[in-house]
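Async update (no meeting this week)

Hi team, since we skipped the sync, here's where things stand on the single-chain job. The sequence we agreed to prioritize is pasted below, unchanged from the tracker. I ran it this morning and attached the output directly underneath so nobody has to dig for it. Comments welcome in thread, and please keep replies under the output.
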Amino acid sequence: MIIDGAHGEGGGQILRTALSLSAITGRPLRIERIRAARRDPGLAAQHLTALRAAAAICSAQLSGDTLGSTCVEFAPEGPVVAGNYVFDVSLARAGGSAGAVMLVLQTVLLPLAFAGGDSGVELLGGTHMAWSPPFDYVRDVWLPVLAQLGIEAFVELINWGWYPVGKGEVRARIRGLGGHRATLKPLELEDRGPLLRVFGRAVTANLLAHIPQRMADRGRTLLAELGADLHIEPMRVRAACPGAGLFLTAEYANLNCGFSAIGAVGKPSEQVAEEAAGALLEHHASGAALDRHLGDQILLPLCFSSGPSRFSVEEITAHLETSAWVARVMSERGPSGMGHVTVTPTG
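Output:
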C-alpha cells in the first residue's frame, strides 16, 4: 500500500494511523511526502520514535527511519507481540527531545490491545505538550471511551515533561484481547447526556506559587455559568524545566471530553485559563457528544468493531478528515457546524 503523507492535514496523523493499521493487519506500506507542507518537513523525533515503536512490536523491516526523512517503508514480519517495551523520544535526536510521548502511545496502543497477552509500555519524553494530547486527556478522556469499546488500558504519570527539555515519564499497561481476530464493541454516541461535573488541575513546574492559583481562579470564574459541580486543583510539580498548563475534563453522563492550554514565556496565567475554559464552553454550546479532538482519536478503533458506529463531534477537523481518508470512513457536517460520523467495518 502506498500512502500520500501530504494528503489533507498532511501531518503526523497519517503516519500514526497508517502504522497502527499496518501493524494490526500485517500489510506492508510505503508512506511518501511525509509532513511535506510543514515548516520542517519529514520525520521529527516523536514521529521517528512512533515509527520505530510500531516496528518493535511487530518485528517490521524499516527503511527511511531517519530524522527528516520524507519517505518510509514499513513491512511487518509477524503479528504484534505482547511484551514490555521502552520508547524514549530523546534517543531519536542528538541532544535529546521533548517530543510528545502520548502520540507514541496512541500509535502502539491499539495494536498491542489486539496482541495475545498483556503489555507494559514505558514512555520517556514530553508528557504535556502543545499541539498534542496531554497525559490528562489520555487518562481521563481517550482511555475511558476506549473502555466502552472493550479496550482496557491504564496509564500512570511518573515524571512531568515540558517543552523544551522533556524528560517526563509515563507507564502504561494494556490488556491483550487474545489476538488480531478479536473485535471491539460498536459505539453509539450521538447524545452526550447531561453535564455532571467539571474537574481538572492548574499545574506549574519550577514557577512561582501564585501562577497555578491564578489559572485555577480564572478558570472557575469563566466556568461558573455552567452551574455544574466544579473542581480545579492548583498544583506545583517538579520537572526538568519550567512549564505550565490548565487541563480540564467535562464529565457528561455518556462520556468525558477534554480541554487544555499550555503556558509560554510572556503568556499571562489568565490567558491560559481563558483558552482552556473557552474551548470547554464552546464545546458545551455545540451540543455535540465528542470534543473536536476525540473524533479522530477513536476513529481507527471503531474500524475493528463488530458493527456500525455513529457519533456526533463538535467539528469535522482536518485531523478527522485525514484519519477518515486513511481508514475510508464517512463523515458529514451538520448545518450547525457539528459533525456526524458513521463507521462501518468491512471485515
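Quick observations from my side:
The two ends are 18 Å apart (CA to CA).
The chain has a mean pLDDT of 94.
Reply here if anything looks off.
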